[in-house]
Design goal:
about 450 residues, alpha+beta, D-amino Acid Aminotransferase, Chain A, domain 2, ten-stranded mixed β-sheet, about 25% strand, Aminotransferase-like, Aminotrans_IV, aminotransferase, branched-chain-amino-acid transaminase activity
Length: about 450
Amino acid sequence: MSPSAVASVNKTDMASNLTEAGVKHTIKDTAPSIAVNGHSTGLQELDASKITFTPNENPKAVPEANSPEVTKMSSCTDHMITATWTSKTGWTAPSLIPYGPLALQPHASVLHYSTSCFEGMKFYRGHDLKIRLFRPSLNTVRMLNSSARISLPAFPPAELQKLIETLVAVEGEKWLPKSRPGSFMYLRPTMIGTAPTLSVNKPNEVLLYIIACCFPDFNDPAATLGAHANANNNESPNGNSETKPRPGLKLLASKEDTIRAWPGGFGFAKVGANYGPSLLASDEAHLRGFNQILWLFGPDSEITEAGASNFFLVWKTREGRTQLVTAPLGDGIILAGVTRRSVLELARERIGGEELEVVERKICMWELEEAVNEGRLMEAFAAGTAYFIMPISLIHYRGTDLHIPFADDNYGSKLKQWLMDIMYGAESHEWGVVVQERSLIPSDLDE
């Protein structure tokens, strides 16, 4: 770099937050329509109205609920949606095509530098037989933040939601038949850097794709054990073939040698690099009879997440107040979960007041340990898309088993039921977005 180039850099810009500035520049340069003070770039933005359709001529059979195919979480629907982006032209027209392998060069950016982000969502067959998504706008905005965090191109979140709705509309009738009310499937919108170069730079070629996958109901104990058995050489989390249901999650608290996320990092973004490094500890936890890792951070052992879910507890303070507590978002260590946000909003709106104080603050393990020993801890649960709301029965911390109380009429169960009512149509609510189903009829198809 020449001396003149260095001298031209504004000192204020040099001192600014690099991550925040980089995200703003990425959005401004790749999706100016949603940027503050955006400018014309000449690049095509993502446009769901341009989608083309190609039917799958070899459709698959739908597996039975909680069958081995489902618990392996590897059976996807007949179609997927794709769109590509290049730094020269922007986004191509999206396509709904048969589900199948992707073509990548061995030196594609995603394979070497983890330029990948994704979302986890579900769509639901309601008891009223309608198909719904749950707060999809929160997922699409979060995916925009994740993609910009790792220098992948931005997009209007509303356009991504339209594409998600299109896949759901086409696949819903077959894969969530009306004969299975109260069922769901998992959605995985994903973006990866496909540029074939080993240059350590932001990729100039990208693929966006959306798939739908059969998923077990982790609130069914047998399904939970089956999923863990498939991930651990067909053994149960206890290292044997037993299938006896166990109430609640058993968590192994992480130690100082294993850190999931840290301030200034990317724990708040749903990027691939957050998950791969955690698998080693998670697998060891499974082999020792635990369902997940309880991720701790710092010298005070602050509780951050339970596996890939947000952690909640309900306790009595020494002053006698009942509190629902979860870790805050401010330091960027934990993911801003959609279920997390929904739990907090419903708790404040429908309980709150003198009955339940809703608190977002750091929780240290010594506080939880004291609450258990003093009989003040009332319950704890994990909240996320995959596990939904799952009670926690035990936390192993520094050689001690902390047993967590559980009652059928606790706050976690109440919040879970309210959310299920919205997801499955028992309650009409703006969070439940109805999707009109459609078939791949000739008028949908390309000429």
